[in-house]
# Entry
Amino acid sequence: MFFHDHDDDAMIRIDRITLREIRLRLKEPFRISSGVVEERRILLLELRDTSGVVEWAECVAGEQPNYSPETIDTAWLAIREWLAPRILGKGVGAPPDGLFEILDRHVSGHNMAKAALEMGCWGVAARLRQTSLSKLIGGERERVPTGISIGIQKDPETLVARAKQAHKDGYRKIKLKIQPGADVEYVKAVREALPGDTGLMADANSAYSIRDADHLKQLDAFGLLMVEQPLHRDDLVRHAALQRMLKTPICLDESITDMTRCEDMLALGSGRIVNIKAGRVGGISVARRIHDACAAQGVPVWCGGMLESGVGRAYNVALASLPNFSLPGDLSPSARYWERDIVAPEWTMDADGMVTVPHAEPGIGVQVDRDRVENLTVRREDLRAPGYV
Ligand code: OSB
Ligand code: MG
# Structure
């Protein structure tokens, strides 16, 4: 008689996780109020199930702790020391709905590290079930509208030229990074240079304080879709005060690190729109809960980006196919970032500014170019379940 585990088809069992750091140069430096990046250091994960199925995931942590306290190096440490051991060799539900709670128990913070593993398990579960990640998580949209995030430029003229090109390319939303000294005049110049119905917004990445409220009120003149994260990540109360003073909706990004933060924002009125990045909130499950909580209160959400390679982008596109992702996401095509991506096919955008969701492909929907990844790898570590080789 076989020993039969009746839960077999609802479980995955990861026996190896390979961590790799690759270096990928951006076509041009990307500057936000808190720093600039020219070459991404990207942490890729390759997860192998005992059945032999493999899927890739990406950790969205940056090079510096400017956007978030996490970096690629802290995430590598957290995954190796504290998080991967909770998965390796153990059964994980497929779909891995409850995995975040397992990773989160008595490990505070490190959401990007948790998310990389959690998301990877969703990818493996999708491949194992021969279904797409988008379908597995409940995605519905066939195509998702795309925006572009334009970094801080040296003067308003340069920014106007970039924004005009983006408009011509078909992007559905144009986000301008701002900071004190590069804000009102820059946004005004772009608003005046583009057709009046262009969806325009600004992202401050926490560069202001509540004392700048009168200054920020000037942005109300430009009919922006929203202003993203004007104040510090912990300033939910002051964001609420600022929102009462502004006509422009506030969207929170850095502040929304978990479900509780989202509930607090909704209760306090700290903003009217949420930027969801699965990597920032600990993975797909929490991202979906935030999506649902916002939908229940009529708060629109959209999918943010972290300059991901084609691997991380696949997870973002799948997430953005959920129904309440009603505003264009930072889901620009591969060619906006890289001379060449690490996936086939590369991510593309049609002339209407839409990215097609690969609902018919199993797993994340793109193939990783293994040789290219091998060539770009500067660091590698294989994590295994005890007793496995
Ligand atoms: O604030 O949304 C942000 C990139 C790195 C860190 C923070 C942010 C961003 C972006 C890039 O805006 C969006 C993209 O990936 O295209
Ligand atoms: Mg942002």
Q: What stands out?
A: The longest strand covers residues 11-32. Confidence is low (pLDDT under 50) at residues 1-7.
